[in-house]
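so i finally got all the pieces together for this one. its two components total, 693 residues if u count the protein bits. some of the lines might not be protein, just check the labels. i wanna see the whole assembly predicted at once instead of chain by chain like last time, that was a mess tbh
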Amino acid sequence: MRVRLRSRVALAFAAGALLLSALLVSEIYAVASRYLVDQRDRSAGRQAVVNATLLSTRLTAGTDPEESLSQIRTGAGVDALLHYQGGWYSGAVGLGPDELPEPLTDLVGSGEPAFERYAGGQGAVVTVGVPLASGGEYYEVVQLTTLERTLDTVLLTGLAAAGVTTLLGAALGVWAARRVLRPLEDVTRTAAQLAGGDLDARMSSTYDPDLAPIAGSFNAMARTLSDRIQRDSRFAADVSHELRSPLTTMTASVSVLESRREQLPSAAQEATDLISADLARFAQLLEDLLDLSRDVAPLALDDLPEVPLVDVVRRALASHGGDVGELVVEGDTRVRGDVRRLERIVANLVENADRHGGGVVGVAVVEQGSRVRIVVDDAGPGVPVAEQEVVFERFSRGTPAQSRGSRLGTGLGLSLVREHALAHAGGAWYEDRPGGGARFVVDLPRAEP
Amino acid sequence: MPVRVLVVEDDDRIRAALRLALTEEQYDVTEAAGAEEALELHAASPPDVMLVDLMLGGMDGFDLIRRIRQKSDVPAIVVSARGDTHDVVAALEAGADDYVVKPVVMKELTARIRAVRRRAAARPAPRDGGGDVSHAEALVLAPGGEDGPSLEFSAKAGWLKRDGREVPLTATEFRLLAELAVHLGRVLSRPQLLQLVWDYDHLGDDRLVDVTVRRLRMKLETDPSNPKHLVTLRGRGYRLQASP
């Protein structure tokens, strides 16, 4: 599994922070413990030597060893022990020569002052042994628990600091990653807007020299793209507009010929009929092309009026005339949309049924959940599986067996149905009609009450 | 007497074809290749109907209609290659009565001509018969006084009076107001108005209604952006109402 870039950056920052803080903490701990232990050893040694001198003076003066020892002041956590003329005298209960390490007593017994650190019965201790001028040896057993507690605290504090630092490092990593990725998110969002049809979407401009080239070239690309799209669609629109003028001359002129049809020889009559039929087709083709070139972007449905779809269907069917069977209406059929384009949907579906399906046998407008569907059934042979998507493509015209030769359409009808449906956040598809024949379904979002 | 149609079109061949086709339909056609010529012909002898192309050399069709509207309510139908919303709206706002997109089907064009002619003919000439109708028969939309000017409409006499002075209306505006007045206090939907006023059975253009309503408000309302008499009911249509 690939770890997200953002997580990777955060992890790297956290690991770096952990490594650095761990190094720092261990170094501080080592230095601090060395220094503190050293200090303790020195002060213990100094104190023992002072006490030993005092004790030696008392003993030389003939004072009882027990009493001499009791007069010695030792600090808290320090116990004194005297070895004098073969006897052991202790300043603390339960402390005897057995508690002392043998190498130390041997060394001190041989006349050398010495100290040793070791684990005693109640934790770490350091024992300092000093040979006395009066003869005998004096020992001080110093408890190191306080020092150890101090060092533990230092270590704990250090570890906690390392933990916090690691978390801060991770947070910094997340922030930095987000910071670095923000332009990428801008790119993503802008690209999505462009893909969604908002050709004016651009990245926000920046003065950061690292980011300016990305934003600049992205925006240049978007500009080129939208110019291209607009030029193409303007070209199609311009062509259609330009063709409208000569077409006007032709339709007006042909109407004169049509009204004087009876005066024409039969060959001229037939020629007039051909021209007039194809002029109508030509005009429809131009309108369809204009529709296709105009509407690339989805409609802003919230700004459009609420339309009862059933009214649209009734109007379209009325203008079509002819028998379209029974109109089935169920539920609330209000949608938001452009009436003209909704009417084109119905008109094109009905024309399609006429041309390729032997006429409409049923139309239904049905509320279905949060959607409204227009269903148009025809009496034809249906559409083979392989063709069911092809029929929605531009300039697809059905096979000759399906179409009645003399009534060729523009080949744009169903693709316009789908375009208009998509522009209304809907869809259009083919289904087999139960009982044979074709069924075309247009599915649109119902207007929120 | 044949209906006299003035065709304003700068494309010679389209103009000739329209002349042939309209003559074939028993219209008396006069041609103008530009707006200036159209203004002269109109001044010399006003036609019954004008067909106006929007893209003309020199003064364009929008300006021509505006100029004509300053002195005449002759029915004007725009015949244009451009059917984009802003062209349609601008032409209707300039004062056109209807809008047909090229290439025109002659049956449709003659139907449009008949419809505007009916609208114009159905309107009583205000100066001829206006005096005969007593003010008691007029519809009082606003009594006048401190709240604003008085507003009276008489479909029978063919006038709209604001503070007693007649407001000029085109045939279409008059017919729209008359239909709304007949249905005073009731909502008329756009398709209903298209049928009642413009004689469209189906597939009429809602923009015709919306722009004409806007034009009518300019003449009717004290504050057209906040109408008191000709109100919009969102998603349903329009309603005319008298001051309470």
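Chain A touches chain B through 30 residues (CB under 8 Å).
The two ends of chain A are 46 Å apart (CA to CA).
anyway lmk what u think
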